[in-house]
Amino acid sequence: MEEKHNSNTRPPYGIIAVLMIGAFIAFLNNTLLNIALPSIMKDLEIGPTTVQWLTTGFMLVNGVLIPMTAFLIQKYSVRRLFLVAMTLFTIGTLICGIAHVFPILLSGRMLQASGSAIMMPLLMNVMLVSFPIEKRGAAMGIFGLILMAAPAIGPTLSGWIVENYDWRMLFHFVTPIAVIVLLIGFFLLKDKKEKVHLRLDIVSVILSSAGFGGILYGFSSAGSKGWDSLHVIIPLAVGVVSLVTFIIRQHKQTVPMLNFGVFKFPMFALSSVITMTMNMAMFSGMLLIPIYVQTIRGITPLDAGLMMLPGALVMAFMSPITGRLFDKFGGRVLAIIGLAITVVTTYFFSNLTMDITYTQLVIMNSVRMFGMSMVMMPVSTNGLNQLPTKFYPHGTAMNNTLNQVSGAIGTALLVTIMTTQSEHYAKDLAADAMQQSGDAQPTAEAAAQLQQQITMQATLEGINDAFLVATGIAAVAFILAFFIKRSKQAEEPAEEQQKFSPKLAKN
């Protein structure tokens, strides 16, 4: 496929449609699994720290492979990369569906991740190359609509399947769809690519894997093991050193595996910071609301999924609308309004009580999702719009990598705040209870009931504190949004032209 867009050339809608269906299936699979984790723990007789590897492992594989996608997109055709990605994802789904022990389930999950890691940057790159800047917002809006449909459907569908069938049915449901998408791609994708003489730098691969993998593992482990654990400190130290070395090496490479020169473009750099902070704030809702409604309020998995459904539908419905508004007004106005709504609603979530109604939770979450729908895609697209065409693979790979890293950091930070604050509140509440009871000794039943009440109240206060921190994180993104300017595609830097065009340099 040609890399430069010609305004007279019709976008390859067939290729885009096939890629979107593949990305939708991969995204749906992720949202299906979250609600099923308690059932998997019970069936396979494993604990929370073990089962969380189904999420952490997926994140790690993405963090290791996504930085390589810039190289893969430049070297191989869309058809070849899509077929490899969907094959890996389909095999992984098959393995997960027949798994009866955790190691096999985890292996299948990581195979799924290896396919998913290629899919998203590939689709984003095709979208950027296929549409001119003035039409890109609307195109990205449709892309967002399809992808946001997955989290809208996923939790509710997962809750229903888990309550009525074995959790393996989640994978049996996805497998035939993945096979059909793979066959459609095999017969319909016909794009060709001229042979490109690029060699993968193995040292860069090792440094990238150790860097991003170490950081992701360290932050992902912090929530369960604590920040003072060697399981957290050592991976983070190795990750930081490896990542710094990786960046230095990429700067010296003639053709870097992942070009950090994308951060020389101010709107891309700004959009990266805003989306990272937004990701961290967004995880507060994805992580803390299910804990609150299921653990503290005793709401069933199906009802918990239904509670999140309106918000996800709002986000999906708004995606094409915000895309068109972005084309007309740019990203700044949308981001400021959306982030203002996000900050206010996240603050409301920091004041949860035992008495707040189900309807109130649905409304608060839906309004919060409405605000976020005006931020993520417009800000990200505005940043990518400033990049020269040659930087598109590197920009999309960098965006997806930073999303993984910020997600891991956000999860670790909020879980740590919730657990440490809950422990603090539990001690204070227990001391107050002892002071009020005086010398009277409660019965065993009354003591157990009191302990349960203390645990519930302490957890609630810990969740509120975590949401308060998330409010501060969203507020940082809100301030940064005032510096957004409408992007115009920049000229390719002279030194980069020489890197990518050796013949030109010789002349």
Helix proportion range: over 70%
Structural class label:
mainly alpha
The arrangement of helices and strands along the chain is HHHHHHHHHHHHHHHHHHH
Q: Count the strands?
A: 0
CATH first level of the largest domain: Mainly Alpha
CATH superfamily of the largest domain: MFS general substrate transporter like domains
Indicate the mean pLDDT.
83
Strand content: under 5%
Shape category: globular
Termini Cα gap = 27 Å
Q: Can you walk me through this structure?
A:
There is one protein chain. The protein has helices spanning 13-44, 48-51, 53-65, 69-75, 78-98, 102-130, 133-164, 169-188, 202-225, 230-252, 266-296, 301-329, 331-349, 358-373, 376-385, 392-437, 444-481, 494-500, 502-506. By secondary structure, the protein is mainly α. It folds into three domains: 12-195, Growth Hormone, Chain: A; 202-252; 265-507, MFS general substrate transporter like domains (Growth Hormone, Chain: A, Up-down Bundle). Helix 11 packs antiparallel against helix 17 (444-481) and helix 12 runs parallel beside helix 14. The longest helix has 46 residues, at 392-437. The radius of gyration is 24 Å and the shape is globular.
Topology:
Blueprint lengths: L12 H32 L3 H4 L1 H13 L3 H7 L2 H21 L3 H29 L2 H32 L4 H20 L13 H24 L4 H23 L13 H31 L4 H29 L1 H19 L8 H16 L2 H10 L6 H46 L6 H38 L12 H7 L1 H5 L1
Protein name: DHA2 family efflux MFS transporter permease subunit
InterPro entries: EmrB-like, MFS, MFS_dom, MFS_trans_sf
Main location: membrane
Question: What structural keywords apply?
Answer:
disordered N terminus; Growth Hormone, Chain: A; mainly alpha; 3 domains; 507 residues
